[in-house]
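Loading example: each entry is read as two labelled lines plus one structure line.
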Amino acid sequence: MKVKLRPTGVIALRALPQSKMRTALRYVPPTTLIGAIAYPLLHISGDRRETIYERKTFKSKAESAMGLFKWTTIKTESKPKLYGSLLKINTIYQREKKVQSAVTSFPFAVLYGESSNSLTVVYLIDEEALSESTYSTKDLERAAWGITRLGSRESVVSAEDVNRGKAKIQEVNEAKTKYAFPFKGVDIRGKGTLQTVVDWRSGIGDYSNARRIVMFYPEGRVEVQGKLSIAELDGEVIILAS
Amino acid sequence: MFLSVGVRFEANVEALNMVETAGNYGKHRRVPYLVEEDGRLKTVYVPAMSGESLAHAYQEHLVNEALSADLPVCDDCWRMEFYKSMNKVHLKKKVDPIPDDPKKIEEAIVKACVVEDVGGFLYAEKPPVRRSSAFQVSYALPVKSVALFATSEPQLHARHAQMDASSKKGNASEQMIYYVETGTALYGFTFNLDLDAVGVSAITSKPILDENEIKKRREASLKALFRMLSSGQFGAKLSRFFPVGGITELVVSVTEHPFVVTSPIYDDYLEKTQRRLKVLESFGEEYLFTAATGEKVPEEALKEAIDYLHEKGAF
């Protein structure tokens, strides 16, 4: 399923959620893409749960949607710019007569300019997992039209187009792609950005001890060589994570 | 039911959202706008308003609407200080002793405060409890086609103080000049409200409140949005820099499940939103779309949406 998204200008994703250093991610990781479609999907089924507590651990309900996808990736039309104003935060505790002040910054990725800034997300649906779930293909399609945010806060997006089709997975030694892929055992010809993201297989929600992987986000089309699993959609190629 | 609103508003000489100060210079919030010139990318900084600023204003209106409807608002929110039960000190004001069960913590907070029910909270203690905001706001950014005409211009002001020799301290001057950077732009932003989240637990998915209370809270959250947009009471420095202008266009969609109108920063947002909504018909979903772009004023479009929600039994 291919979903074309339009940002409202800003995508705010924290690279290190538990850090004083508020670095933002420049590109959208797979965990965020799963979270983005999980919210409308759960809404359709009437499930309002966000956090699942299991003894002393807790995770995001978005994880329940993770099994429906073999892989998800994104194509970013233009290179986002990281930007953050300096902010002074003044806190006055009126009862405790305490005054606090701090300077911080919440950077974000800006997708705003003369170019289209569109984002195209591909969700590779596992049909077997879908048939065993309570969801139908139509539910997934409606959920894609209902993606509201990529991540947190002001990262509002609108789904502009949704296309569904069959994709066959093939093994090849060479491929050309505009979509992000894991940077592992590959040779690349072309420009792009490496970004460390949470490994989606670690689950969604608690990232303090989650494994990280390195993803390559192409600028335009790049040529990739290696042992690749690929899927073709509408004449475009995506490289799957091994 | 899910409400999505796209707003375009003209604001001339405004100081709606300020960030750092450098000495006597107060800077307007800005964001980079990327332009291609002779094959090279150039950055132009344009004035902007953060979603956080708009969200704060919305929650202030929500406090007022909740209080006038006799709905509960906690002490912190009543003072327009949206700490949102962030730690034990703030939570203890609502429930003491603090329960160990996250479900009971969420229940206590939601029952005690409409703002934290609708606007979400994050209790960052053990166990951590979070509730996502039922409303979402984008940044307000200059409409792309006219973004390069947006300006951030410093305005010179002077403060005066009467001082005689005995009251003068150090190098304090009787006159002090200062600058306020003002923005001028045609802004666009998106506001979403997920009405199905109000009064329902984000842990168990079950209602925390009775149906009547949930409906009252939904109505208050809709009225707060109406009030915020129709009064232009959002952003900072309204007392001396109230923006010249107002809402020029507004579109509203009401759907059964999440759907976001195309952002008004794009010129084709109206047609695109209508075409995208048409697709929902294939899912057997009813929706409402209304726009204030010509004859209709924003208040009429918003009222239409609120009436539709009332017909549908949302409140």
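Chain A touches chain B through 49 residues (CB under 8 Å).
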